[in-house]
Design a protein that fits this description.
single chain, Transcription Regulator spoIIAA, five-stranded mixed β-sheet
Length: about 110
């Protein structure tokens, strides 16, 4: 089994990324590549589902910081959904809730784009 996986679903003009497993320095490039692909495809409205993410390191957090500006410059955004309390604490500690919409679930995130 892979330590980290990214699955992708399109919902109209919104792309949902489902991240699973462990997001750290070793696996972060996989997520970076996924964001790079989205930019290449000119998809800027992104929801990231954390439902199946077990762990995130600062390298993992850095991926989100690296792409948020590009998304917003193109009238998009990165919304974060479905975090466990453990994962949310990491984001909260670093002040992410002031920078990102962090929502309970995908539906709420989709509605935020409406």
């Amino acid at each position: 089994m892979e330590l980290f996986e990214v699955d992708r679903k399109e919902d109209g003009n919104i792309t949902i990324l489902y991240i699973k497993g462990y997001l750290d320095a070793h696996t972060a490039p996989k997520l970076e590549q996924e964001f790079q692909n989205l930019i290449t495809e000119q998809k800027y409205k992104i929801i990231v589902s954390f439902k199946e993410l077990n762990y995130i390191s600062s390298a993992g957090l850095g991926v989100f910081m690296g792409f948020i500006e590009t998304m917003r410059e193109n009238e998009g955004d990165i919304k974060l959904a479905g975090m466990s309390p453990k994962i949310f604490r990491v984001f909260d500690l670093l002040g992410f809730p002031t920078l990102y919409d962090i929502l309970e679930n995908e539906e709420e995130a989709i509605n935020k784009f409406a």
